[in-house]
Write a structure and sequence with these properties.
Keywords: ATP-binding, Cytoplasm, Ligase, Nucleotide-binding, Purine biosynthesis. It is built from 11 helices and 14 strands. The chain is α+β, with helices and mostly antiparallel strands. It folds into 2 domains: 154 residues, 2-Layer Sandwich (60s Ribosomal Protein L30, Chain: A), CATH 3.30.1330.10; 177 residues, PurM-like C-terminal domain (Phosphoribosyl-aminoimidazole Synthetase, Chain A, domain 2), CATH 3.90.650. The strands form 4 sheets. A 6-stranded mixed beta sheet has the order 10-12-7-13-11-14. Strands 3-6-4-5 form a 4-stranded mixed beta sheet, covered by helices on one side. It has a two-stranded antiparallel ribbon with strand order 1-2. Strand 1 and strand 2 form a beta hairpin. Helix 1 runs parallel beside helix 4, helix 3 packs parallel to helix 4 and helix 8 packs across helix 10.
């Protein structure tokens, strides 16, 4: 038999194991930074380990789990050649779903799917995920990078993640705690976050023909830089709020917009009114609406319109809640209240016009 084999191999099928190993080596330093005392072991195991004895301090610990991705925002990152911000988006999408029920995020795992492994690119993505975990106070205990030649183009990729958190059973937040008269506190988003990019890309690129390197005076930077602004991670801010004020519920404003997401925590018989005049959406929302002649209700069904998280608190807790958030650098305001629901009214109503 010839020393030079002409048979098929994994490499000839398009999978580069050596590049994958190189990517793992490059990401090690970042993963080490995204840890907690309870995280056991290091990079390279078949499973991430977390010391559950830390939960002994809970009377009745409830584990919370969430999973999400970044959606078509990854296409902006690919075209911009910027890969270290979408990890923040991924972490924010997951941990801020966990904290809605009052859960402290404990650890995350990630999944990166690529058409071809470029080690520096994969490491940059993981760097962003690790940095996001640090901001969220959770550990990155494991992950997977999969190379899918033939299914994805060489420059194409996608990311997803899953997280686990814990909350004491008697401190579980949600609809059952909300009462008439509660204040609805809005927390500002950092921009589009990671939702609605299919609409955004259709409007700005397909219809308006804009370029990512276009300088936009209202942004003070290029269009691409604005679109890649990372999702704000609220988990530690929300947990701090639960320690200083009574909180009845949170709502993470993601796909579906403010009304649809807030409605998920409004109980039968009650109604949330939210006054648009209490805030001004950032210029990126106006650009999308204007460039695509998108009606306001359609924008509000798709984008966060400048609000990334909602807290529902008793009226008497509103002032201390706002002070806590301000001390943590979170722009927040009272945007509405909880009232009795009349007849067949929707769970949430947005009133007024946005402040100019």
């Amino acid at each position: 038999m010839s020393a030079e084999s002409t048979g098929a191999s994994y490499a000839s099928a398009g999978v580069d194991i050596e590049a994958g190993d190189r990517a793992v080596d490059l990401m090690r330093e970042w993963v080490k930074k995204a840890t907690r005392p309870e995280a056991v072991g290091g990079l390279g195991g078949f499973a991430g380990l977390f010391d559950a004895s830390a939960l002994k301090r809970y009377e009745r610990p409830l584990l919370a789990s969430a999973t999400d991705g970044v959606g078509t925002k990854v296409d902006i990152a690919r075209k911009m050649g910027v890969y270290d911000t979408i990890g923040h988006d991924l972490v924010g999408m997951v941990v801020d779903d966990l904290v809605v029920c009052g859960a402290e995020p404990l650890f995350m795992t990630d999944y990166i799917c690529v058409g071809k492994v470029y080690p520096e690119r994969v490491a940059a993505i993981v760097k962003g995920i690790a940095e996001g975990c640090v901001l969220a106070g959770c550990a990155l205990v494991g992950g997977e990078t999969a190379e899918h030649p033939g299914l994805l183009g060489a420059d194409e990729f996608d990311v997803a993640g899953a997280g686990t958190g814990v909350v004491e059973a008697d401190r579980l937040l949600g609809a059952e705690r909300i009462r008439t008269g509660d204040a609805v506190i809005a927390m500002a988003s950092s921009g589009l976050h990671s939702n609605g990019y299919s609409l955004v890309r259709h409007v700005l690129f397909d219809r308006a023909g804009m370029a990512l390197d276009r300088e936009v005076p209202e942004f003070g930077r290029t269009l691409g830089e604005e679109l890649l602004e990372p999702t704000k991670i609220y988990s530690l801010d929300c947990l701090a709020l639960t320690r200083t004020a009574e909180v009845h519920a949170f709502s993470h404003i993601t796909g579906g917009g403010l009304a649809n997401n807030l409605a998920r925590v409004i109980p039968d018989g009650l109604h949330a009114t939210v006054d648009r005049s209490t805030w001004t959406p950032g210029p990126v929302f106006d650009l999308v609406g204007t460039a695509g002649s998108v009606e306001r209700l359609e924008l509000e069904k798709t984008l966060n319109m400048g609000v990334g998280m909602i807290a529902v608190v008793p009226q008497e807790s509103a002032e201390v809640a706002l002070t806590t958030l301000a001390d943590r650098g979170v722009d927040a305001w009272v945007a509405g209240e909880i009232v009795e629901r009349a007849g067949h009214a929707e769970a949430v109503t947005l009133t007024g016009d946005y402040a100019s």
